[in-house]
Amino acid sequence: MTFKFSQRSEKHLTGVHPDLVKVVRLALTLAKQDFSVIEGLRTLERQKELVAKGASKTLNSRHLTGHAVDLVPYPVNWDKWSEFKQLADTVKQAAKQLNVPIVWGGDWTSFKDGPHFELDRAEYK
Ligand SMILES: [Zn+2]
Q1: What residues flank ion ligand 1 with Cβ within 5 A?
Q2: Domain Peptidase M15C spans what residues (predicted)?
Q3: Could you tell me the distance, in angstroms and rounded to a whole number, from the CA of residue 16 to the centre of ligand 1?
């Protein structure tokens, strides 16, 4: 089965670092379950809103520089962590194939962020 991104997902890839876009696109070809890009590049205004709501913990988000994307399984069930985990495994596999170091927010211990993927700060400043 092959999936194709919706126009909405494509729009959210605009302004995202090309290496991360490559990873996301390869992941889509490897994925067993369809997924959507729900956020990419973010304005400072939007980031401030998210922090105020408690949806984000930092004003130093990688979304502000196009180094992060938020992906969710499609159709999304926010209670099914296993589906986020499976998507993360697929994205990690794609990143490995392309030799692009990424970090999954679901691996964070303090604030687990299942949809969040970013380019590793160590290699991408
Ligand atoms: Zn995010």
Answers
A1: 68, 70, 116
A2: 56-119
A3: 12
